[in-house]
Amino acid sequence: MQCKVTEIGSDTYRLSTFHPDFGIQFNQILIKDDEPFLMHTGFKSMFQTTLTGVTSIMDPATLRWVGFSHFESDECGALNEWLGVAPHAQAVCSFVGVTVNVNDFADRAPRSLEDGEVLRIGRHHLRFLSTPHVPHAWDAGLFFDETERTLLCSDLFFQPGDAEPLIESGIVERARDAMRSGLNSPLAKDMPYTPYTDSTLQRLATLKPRTLATMHGCSFRGDGGRAILYLASVIKDLLGKPEGGL
Length: 246
Ligand SMILES: [Fe+2]
Ligand SMILES: [Fe+2]
Known about the structure:
The structure is a single chain. By secondary structure, this protein is an alpha/beta fold. 28% of the residues lie in helices and 26% in strands. It is built from 7 helices and 14 strands. It has helices at residues 47-55, 73-76, 79-85, 95-105, 171-182, 197-205, 224-239; strands at residues 3-9, 12-19, 24-31, 37-39, 65-67, 90-94, 111-113, 118-120, 125-130, 141-145, 150-154, 166-167, 211-214, 219-221. Strand 4 (37-39), helix 1 and strand 5 form a beta-alpha-beta unit. Helix 5 (171-182) runs parallel beside helix 7. The chain is globular, with a radius of gyration of 17 Å. It starts with a strand and ends in a 7-residue tail after the last helix. The model has no long low-confidence stretch (mean pLDDT 96). Bound molecules: fe (ii) ion (2 copies).
């Protein structure tokens, strides 16, 4: 496996590794600043590949923050490997994530963020948004780089395959097709439709991101607010109807 690095915004790097066994990309986003920030660690088993990608951009020992949306192996499985190579690095995620999982899991004390709190890493200011169950999991949250207007989307806009790094149209259609075909897969029902789903997506749209940096599939540059509203309508249409009981 090879980690492909693309600068998708100022100081903002997409590190993408296609995993043939899963048929999807695992993407990390590195924001290079006074206090470098890595969104997602990748799997523990992919650490060396991800490390190679980061090393092509900066000295990995200078990494300061490891952020992620929710506690899953692709989001934070290699957290302790990163803490091992970067002596000043800390995990940063939601209060629920820290309290329920990361305090126990991490080899170094994590930092929790409240909803709306801003993490200043230098020129870039990252606003944390608590988004329970969006894309999934109680502890979920997202980071929004207010400086470059980049939303670090985690699993939102999931698309399979080894996609190109950045597109300027069609991301919702790709995500819609992936959601549709996923409805009958063994990994179906990854995203619950809750009383908070639509309002959470509407809130994300008001941020008016210029770039949507996805974890699986291509990133998007353009009218991010419009794309999120379109995605919200797709999700409501596909998931927001009662199934008639299990
Ligand atoms: Fe996930
Ligand atoms: Fe993921």
